[in-house]
Every structure is written in C-alpha cells, then in structure tokens.
Design brief:
334 residues, alpha/beta, Rossmann fold, Helicase, Ruva Protein, domain 3, Zinc Finger, Delta Prime, domain 3, 3 domains, two-stranded parallel ribbon, 7 strands
Length: 334
C-alpha cells in the first residue's frame, strides 16, 4: 500500500484513491496541476520515477503499457503512471485499460489527464469519473475568474501587490481569459511593480492590444448576430491605427484564411485542436478558438467573405467607395 502526504495526498490510500483524473480545455492549468502532483510524488519518493504513457501516439497499446509499468516488483522504486489523452480510445482498448486498472488494484498510483473533450459515452471516462479518488476539472476561465486568477498569480510572487479595477480591466481586455498568457503577464507586472497597487500605466508598459485578437472578437460578435457591436469594434480599430481600412481588410482576410485552414482539417474529420495545430502549424489555443466557430463558418461563407473583401478593397482603391462605408458593407453582407 502506498501512502502519500502533502500535495501528493490527493492520490490515494485505498484502491480507487490511487487515481487522479484531470480534465478540461484549459491546458495550461491542467498541465501545471499535473506537474504539481508529479513533483509531490517525487518529493515523497526521491528515488521514485514517473512513467509517461501518451495515448495519442499509440492508442492501441495503452493497456499493455500501463500493465507493464504498473507491475513492477514490490521492492522496486515507487513509480507514478502519467497517462495522457486516453479517454478517446477504441472501445476494445478502453475495456482492456479498465481491466488492467482492476487487476493492478492499489499497486500503482496514476494520473489520467485529458485536455481534449472525451467521447460522450467513453467507457473509460465513465469508469474513472466513478472510481477515481480525485477528479479535477479545468474549464476555460470566465472573465470574473480570470480577474481572480491574475491577482492570485501575481500574489504568488509578490504577496503585497494589488491591482486597481482599471488595471485588471485592461489586462483582461488584452489577454482575454487565456490562463497561460494571464499568468505570464501577471508575474511580469508584479515583479516590476513590487509591493503596492498596479495601475493602468503599469499595464501599458507590458501589454499592447493585438489587432488580430480584436479582429477575432469582432468576427465573433458578427457571427453571434451582434453586427452593431462588430462594426463598433472594427471602426474603433480603424480610427486608432494609421493603417486605416486597407490594413484592417488585410487582417480580416488573414483571419478568414486561418478559419479556412481549420475548416479544411475539420471537414476531413480531424476535430482535435492539438492534431489540427500540428497539421497547420498554428498554436493549439488559436485552433481551439477557431474550432468553436466552425458551426457558423461553412466553406461557402468563408469563400464569399474573401470575395466580398476583394471586391470592396478594389472599389476603395479606385475611389469608388468611402473606406468606412466599405467596412460597413462588409459587416452587413458577411
């Protein structure tokens, strides 16, 4: 029987408590939690080891690898099994993994982590939710949760730092609810400010609003039916940037082409953000955001959007149409 203390105490003392299940789309927080658990294990067992089993690379051999790694001699060094992305296995392999877990009993401690949504009726997922000693969910942060997250991340490095309301608003407006970026920026700003209150001017030293992110937010408002908000955002960007509508049209075209890439992989049956990221060279968190818009961006709409941009751009360049009117027409017709 393996007994854990400290952070590792979340892993178990009796049969089913030996498993921790980590799931959710917030990959940064999930991976960090997984690392905390592994560090807790190695702190308790300095001569111990961690065996990583990545189901995404060899889904047909997961049960065999778990059995081999978990069946070490009782007098061998303690080993933690780090099983990743195993909740979308073929039914036969999922059944084999369940059988292996029952067979191993309390011989091995395991972390199962899954950042991609499992199949709705995945047998292994249902088994782990029922029997794991600890289940932790890492869903994307809400705006309010993001604010609390920023403060907590900053205080972890500078306990006496605080944030003005305007400073927090500015951070969230630039970074959104991306926990990885929020953590990075919160730490940098806290280390710069030290003890005391972070002001909007402090934030401005580190953060610039990304025009591409603004474009995505505007398109999101547009496809959600809020054309007025979309136009407001795009006009604000035009009037605050010397590149004007012509530059904005270039950014819009770029964003639609990125949607094209994801749409192509999606229509070929590739629906995992990590897999699409590898195929396209895009960042997984960007793919994740674009994937959420596939339902409102069929290929026909994407093609018509690029054609509309090209026509309006041509008319604008020959003086046939006012630039801001061209932008308004794009928002109305897409």
């Amino acid at each position: 029987m393996i007994y854990w203390e400290g952070p590792a105490a979340l892993l178990f003392r009796i049969h089913t408590d030996m498993i921790v299940l980590l799931t959710g789309k917030d990959r940064f927080r999930l991976v960090r939690r997984r690392t905390e658990l592994k560090n807790g294990f190695l702190s308790k067992y300095p001569s111990g080891s961690c065996a990583v089993i990545d189901a995404s690379t060899d889904p047909a051999s997961v049960s065999r690898k778990i059995l081999e790694a978990g069946s070490a001699d009782l007098f061998a060094s303690a080993c933690l099994l780090d099983v990743r992305e195993a909740l979308s296995l073929p039914d036969g392999e999922a059944t084999d993994v369940k059988d292996v877990l029952k067979r191993l009993g309390d011989q091995s401690a395991m972390i199962f982590s899954q950042s991609e949504p499992p199949k709705a009726k995945d047998k292994l997922f249902a088994f782990l939710r029922k029997h794991a000693g600890k289940v932790e969910l890492f869903e994307p942060l809400s705006p309010r949760e993001a604010e609390s997250f920023v403060v907590a991340e900053a205080k972890a490095v500078v306990s006496g730092v605080t944030f003005s309301r305007l400073a927090l608003n500015k951070i969230i407006s630039v970074c959104g609810t991306d926990s990885s970026r929020l953590s990075s920026e919160a730490v940098k700003i806290a280390q710069f400010r030290g003890e005391g209150e972070v002001s909007p001017s402090d934030v401005d030293l580190f953060l610039r609003e990304d025009p591409q992110e603004k474009i995505f937010v505007a398109l999101d408002a547009l496809v959600s039916g809020n054309r007025g908000r979309a136009l407001e955002l795009l006009l604000h960007e035009v009037r605050s940037d010397s590149g004007g509508v012509q530059k904005l049209f270039g950014l819009l075209a770029w964003q639609i082409r990125e949607l094209f890439k994801v749409r192509g992989e999606y229509d070929r049956g590739n629906m995992r953000a990590d897999d699409i990221a590898r195929a396209t060279g895009m960042k997984p968190f960007v793919v994740g955001k674009l994937l959420s818009k596939m339902g409102v961006f069929p290929l026909s709409r994407l093609r018509s959007g690029l054609a509309l941009l090209a026509d309006l751009d041509a008319d604008m360049k020959i003086g046939k149409i006012d630039p801001e009117l061209a932008l308004t027409l794009f928002v109305e017709k897409l």
